[in-house]
């Protein structure tokens, strides 16, 4: 008896290459795009280990936990790392990056997370990219959370290494990712004696065995189900239209902020400036004396299906995160999440305005 998920014909090299081309069009780039057979941490780490080493001076922007991780990888490679850390309720500015270059003109690598879903902020990658380009440094961008939720334009922004994943705004699985690589980045890797070779982390192996060979022979059997799921994600985005998908995510973020504010009970957006708020997730600050993990647990008890969770690590007591990406960038999802948080507060005797929150969410959605 055949099974639609198990008895699939092998994925051809031509089909694999066609999916890469569609991802490149999504990024509006003519750079090489390589689809990696694993979650986005694979190309994120592989790109750093391929281009950084003892001679590297890296400016590492920290606006959340992934920025911290990148700094650790860079140090592990032997790079000198200058951390530019800002409070997690805000975002880094192009002027701060410019000041860092003025103080350390030897910087030749800049790592940045575009949207930090964990903290709910987004960095203005286009403006920062312009500064990086002025100084000739290599620009590494984690766009895993931002792709399909807001513009991601490696060519226009001068991004040399741009990593994306399917599991957030693209609405797909976590097991497949992609990276666009500029010619400068390939040159940096080729000149780096510490770049991984004969390794799952090696981007150079993919270049030599796949890209440079005209993409005719796959270097190993691809993760077939994930590749087909990625293709389906891109098809769905193409069908809806990328601008429409991004507008839906922007509306979900604005509606969540409006609903939380109208709900009351001491809740407020964790990222104060809406211009710095990520379109994939809204983080919410709980009132003084409340425990975010308890409020989130009560919200999930009220409605187990809502995409609400407490913040991670040290943020677990003060922050709740509402994920509204992919199919979850939807008015019904936002309404349910806001109502569930209200129920979590109400159970503790905190007065909230359910009707006002519903109207606020609906009002934003109607104007999108």
Please give the share of residues in helix. 40-55%
- Unreliable runs, pLDDT <50, ≥5 residues? none
CATH class of the largest domain: Alpha Beta
- CATH homology-level superfamily of the largest domain: Type I PLP-dependent aspartate aminotransferase-like (Major domain)
Give the spatial strand order of the biggest sheet.
1-9-8-7-4-2-3
Can you tell me the number of structural domains? 2
Radius of gyration: 21 Å
Number of helix segments? 13
The total count of strands amounts to: 13
Looking at the structure, the CATH topology of the largest domain is: Aspartate Aminotransferase, domain 2
For the sheet with most strands, the description reads: 7 strands, mixed
Architecture of the largest domain in CATH?
Answer: 3-Layer(aba) Sandwich
Give, in order, the helices and strands. HEHEHEHEEEHEHEEHHHHEEHEEHH
Structural class based on helices, strands and sheet pairing = alpha/beta
Distance between the termini: 48 Å
Q: Work out the strand percent.
A: 15-25%
What shape does the CA trace take?
Answer: globular
Average per-residue pLDDT, rounded, comes to: 96
